[in-house]
Amino acid sequence: MSPERELDRTEEIAREQAYVSTVYDKLDAERKTAQRRLTETLRLTGGTPQARTERDVATTLYSDRLAQLGSVEQGLVFGRLDFTPDSEEETAYIGRLGLFDEDDDYRPLLIDWRAPVARPFYLATAASPEGVRRRRHIRSLSRKVTGFDDEILDLHAADQGQDLGLAGEAALLAALERKRTGEMSDIVATIQAEQDRIIRSGLNGVMVVQGGPGTGKTAVALHRAAYLLYTFRQQLTTRGVLVVGPNSTFLRYIGQVLPSLGETGVLLSTVGQLYPGVEATGVDTREAAEVKGRLVMAEVLANAVKDRQRVPEPVLEIEYERDILRLDRKTASDARARARRSRRPHNQARRVFRSELLDALTRQAARKLGAELLDPRDIEDMREELSADRGVAAALDSLWPELTPEGLLDDLFADRERLRSAAGKLLSEADRAHLESGRDAKWTPADVPLLDELAELIGEDDTEARAEEARREREDRAYAEGVLDILEQDEEIIDEELLRVSDVLDAELFAERQERRSQLTAAQRAALDRTWTFGHVIIDEAQELSAMDWRLLMRRTPNRSMTLVGDVAQTGAPGGARSWGEVLSPYVEDRWRLEELTVNYRTPAEIMAVAARVLAEVNPELEAPVSVRETGVAPWLKRLSPNEMLAELPSLVDKELSAVDGGTVAVLSPAERIADVRAALADVDERVSVLTVETAKGLEFDSVVVLSPDEVVAESPRGLNDLYVALTRATQRLGVVQTGDLVPALQPLG
Ligand SMILES: Nc1ncnc2c1ncn2[C@@H]1O[C@H](COP(=O)(O)OP(=O)(O)OP(=O)(O)O)[C@@H](O)[C@H]1O
Asked: Which amino acid positions bind ATP, per UniProt (predicted)?
C-alpha cells in the first residue's frame, strides 16, 4: 500500500473510531439508566397488589435490558452502509442492537442487524445493490477500531466473491480463518445472502433447511431464533422458543451464541431432556435405540396400557364383610368397554371403570341383604363403604391399576411375557431381544419419547388435586372476606389500618397465585412442564431423530411453527431420516417448505475433495457443498498397526497442535477403540478432544485426526455417512490413521 493510501486509511480508522466511541458512550449511558431504574424499583416496597405486579414486571424488564446491554460489548458496531446520492437513506451503522439519540429526534445511532433497514448489509450485491454504494465491515478489538474492509457495489468494481455470491468476502474469510476455541461464535457481521433469506423467513409453518456439512445450518438456526424473537417478540416471549440439539456436548458448544446476541429466553435441549424429572443418562445399544425409535412402538405402548386393563377369568371373588362378592367376566368387560369408550387416558378412565364396578358390587351386596328392605340412602351408604374397603379397592386395582409411565415401561422391558403380548406381530423376536438385553439401569435418551407417549396414554387423574386446589382458593377468599367484614363493622379500626389489613389479605391470595404462575421466563417454565407447547421450535441435526422423537416434538409444537435443519447425507442414527418428506408427511403432509444451503464455510477444498469421494459412495446422486476457501495443506494418511497407533498418537497429536498453533484438535475414533485411545491420550493438552463420530456431530476443530476409518465404516449400517461426518469436522487440517483395510474412497490419500 502506498504511504498516501496508508495515511488515508489511518485517518479513516480515526473517523470510524470517533463514531464507534460515541456509540459505546451511548451504550454506557443506557446501561446506567437501566441500572438506576432497576435499583429504584427494587427499593420500592409495599403498595397495592397491582403496584407489586407492576414492580415485578418492571424488575424483569430492567434486568433483561441490563443483561442485553451487557452481552453486546464485543463487536458492538460491525458494519456501515453508504447509499447512492439518489437514495433516500442516510449512512447507517449496523450493530448488535439498536441505539437511538433521544436528543436528536431519535436519530438511529446504531441499527439492530435484525431490523429491515439493515438487510442490504447482507443482501446487496454489485448486480443488485439495493441503493447501496459502499458496504464497510468494521473490525474492532474491545472498543478499539482496528481496521475495515470496503466493497464498492457498482457493476464496474471487481467482485471477487461473485462466483459464490459472497458478501463482504474479506471479512468473511478473516472470520473463517480464525482459530476455533471450542465454543461456536455468532456470525452477525458476515451472514451471507442465502443464509439471510432463511434467517428472516416468516414465522409460520414448517421450514426445512437442507445443507451439507459446514454450510452454516447451526449458525443460521440460532440467528433465526434471535431474529424471530426480535421480530415477533410479543407472540414468542409467552410461549418461548425451543432449540433442540443432538447431545449435551453439542448444546455446550452452541450455548454462547444466543446470549452473545442478547437473547436469553430460548430453551436449548436434547430430546432426552424433554421429560421433566427424568435424567436420561443411560446408553442403549445401537440396535435397542433403533427399535425404541420405530413408529410401531406407539402401538406397542398403547397395547401395553390396554393389557393392564384386565377382566376376571372367569370370576373374581372378593371377600367383603365375611361374605364373598363375585365379579364376573361379563360385568367387568362391560365396565371396561364403557371406560375405554370415554376416550380418556388410562388413569382418568379408571374412574369410569371403578364406578361401574362399584355400582355392580353394590347391587350384588344389596341383593344379598334383601334389596327391597333398603332405601336409596342405605344403598348409597353401602356403595361408599364398598368403595372405602381395602379388599374391594385391591380387587379393582388388580383389574385396572393406577399406572405411571416410568413404572409401566420398566415392567414392559423387564417382563418377557408382557413385552411379547404388547408387541404381538409388531416386533420380531430379535427386536424384543434387543429391548430386553439392551436394558440399562438408567433411562436412556431413546426411552424419553416412549415415556412421553405413555404419559399421554396414561394421563394423570388430577380430579382430586384440582378440586382440592379450588377448595383451598375458595376457603382463603372466604376467610379474607370474612375478616374484612369484621374489620369494616368495627368502628374502632381506623381507615388506614383497614386498608393495610385488606392489602395483606389480598396480597396473600395474590402471592399464592403468583407462586403458581411464578416469575420464571417462558423457557424456564417450559423446561419444568411436560405439556408445555412452544411458540416456535428449531431442531438442529434433525436428520438424526427417530419417528418416536418426532412424535414427542410435534406434541410440543401443535401450531407447527418449526424450523428443521439438517442433512440427510449425514444421517448416522439407524432410525434417522432418509428423506424429509417421509419424516414430515404424517404431520403436515406436503405443507412444508424447503430451503437449501450450498456453500461450505468450514471445510477447505482440499479436505472436501476427500469427503466428496466418500459421499459419492454413500449415494452418487448427492452433491457435496462447494468450499469457500483453500488452505494449500493436503490431508495426510499414515498406515500403522493398532498398537503402533496407540504408541504414536501422543506425538501425532502434538504435531497437529503445533501446526494449528493455539487452535483445537480432535481425534475421532471408532467406538470400539475409544477407551484405549482416551487412555493413550490421557495427559494431552485440553485443546485436544477425543470423541466418537456420533458425539462429534455438529462440532468443528482446526485439525481432525480420524482413526481406523474402515472400522468407523464397519461399525454401523450407515458407517459411510459417519465417515463423511468425521472428515468434514476440520477447519484447517485433516489426518487419517489407517490400521486395517483402506477404505476405497480414501485410496488417493495413500
Ligand atoms: N456467514 C458466515 N460467516 C462466518 N462464518 C460462518 C458463516 N456461515 C457459517 N460460518 C461458520 O462455518 C462453520 C460451520 O457452520 P455450522 O456449524 O453452522 O455448519 P453446519 O451446516 O451446521 O455444519 P454440520 O452439518 O457439518 O454440522 C462455523 O464455524 C460457522 O461459524
From this structure: 211-218
